[in-house]
Design brief:
Mean pLDDT: 90
CATH architecture of the largest domain: Sandwich
Distance between the termini: 13 Å
Largest sheet: 8 strands, antiparallel
Number of domains: 2
CATH topology of the largest domain: Jelly Rolls
Number of helices: 1
Length: about 290
């Protein structure tokens, strides 16, 4: 069983499934997408040296039929199609569901829906062409996990009162997707020159700023959406992009396990501050 739900930028949704009024007959484009091999070649070299693969945009084509009880109802359903699938509304969200699970992807209606003239009574065939600028599917809902300071002691059953103190301000983050994925970090103060470190890769992002107790530093590492700003206690926002430490990297979570840690130049801040990381697992196909 396969279904498709498309929600446009106005929040209007269209559900295409296995029953009327909007029957889904066929969907293509949910597998892999073409890649462009990036390579270099030196004089007298046999072959070339691999650099990277750049994936193309993902085309998704949906075909099916509008099933109505009357000719008037059929034309009203066609009107709904044209309104919701208006390409001038820009990107929307497409959710593809198969028998195993659901995937989401940003999608643009490439052109107005194509209605086949070969109607049968009150049934209208349709074809919709979507283009997905980011070719990766994601989980339907965003994942979040917090980094919090913990401290205490471990006591072992020995004759002597042996006790080991511990403190931690790190956490393990699992990326179950096929490729690395960007993160959005919310660092709630206080913190002096707050930093979040990906110990798995050795990368970090540090902002040279004195974060107040009720301030939240927001860092987005997504390509084309990078931002670093402080949400102040009065809910106003301050752009602090130019206060990033020069050694910083807008790191991403590698597939598998990632150990993250936060820190501050003021010792006492660690036990008070909290850090929450948000991300979507990304998949090469569904």
């Amino acid at each position: 069983m396969e279904t498709v739900t498309f929600t446009n930028s106005r929040g209007e949704s269209l559900y295409l499934g296995t029953s009327k009024p909007f029957y889904l007959k066929k969907i293509t484009g949910t597998g892999g997408v073409p890649g462009n091999l990036q390579s270099t070649k030196s004089p007298y070299q046999d072959g070339s040296s691999f650099v990277d693969i750049q994936l193309a945009e993902r085309p998704i084509v949906v075909e099916g039929g509008i099933i109505a009880n009357s000719r008037q109802q059929m034309y009203q359903y066609r009107r709904d199609f044209m309104r919701i699938l208006n390409s001038k509304l820009g990107p929307g969200k497409l959710v593809y569901t198969n028998s195993a699970r659901s995937y989401a992807i940003g999608a643009v209606v490439e052109n107005t829906p194509d209605f086949d003239d070969d109607r049968i009574v009150n049934n209208q065939p349709y074809k919709i062409n979507f283009t997905c600028p980011d070719p990766y599917f994601t989980d339907e809902t965003q994942i979040s996990k917090g980094l919090r300071f913990e401290s205490g002691g471990l006591t072992f059953p020995l004759r002597l009162p042996t006790q080991f103190a511990y403190s931690a301000y790190r956490g393990l983050f699992q990326n179950d997707g096929d490729v690395e994925t960007p993160v959005e970090i919310h660092y709630k103060g206080p913190a002096l020159n707050p930093v979040v470190i990906n110990e798995t890769t050795g990368e970090f992002i540090q902002v040279n700023y004195d974060l107040g107790e009720n301030d939240v530093l927001v860092i987005n590492t997504a390509f084309g959406q990078k931002r670093v700003e402080v949400v102040n206690s009065d809910r106003t926002r301050t752009n602090v992009f130019h206060w990033i430490d020069l050694g910083s990297t807008f790191f991403q979570l590698l597939p598998g396990r990632n150990m993250l840690r936060y820190d501050s130049d003021r010792e006492g801040d660690r036990s008070v501050a909290t850090v929450t990381v948000y991300w979507y697992n990304r998949y090469g196909g569904g």
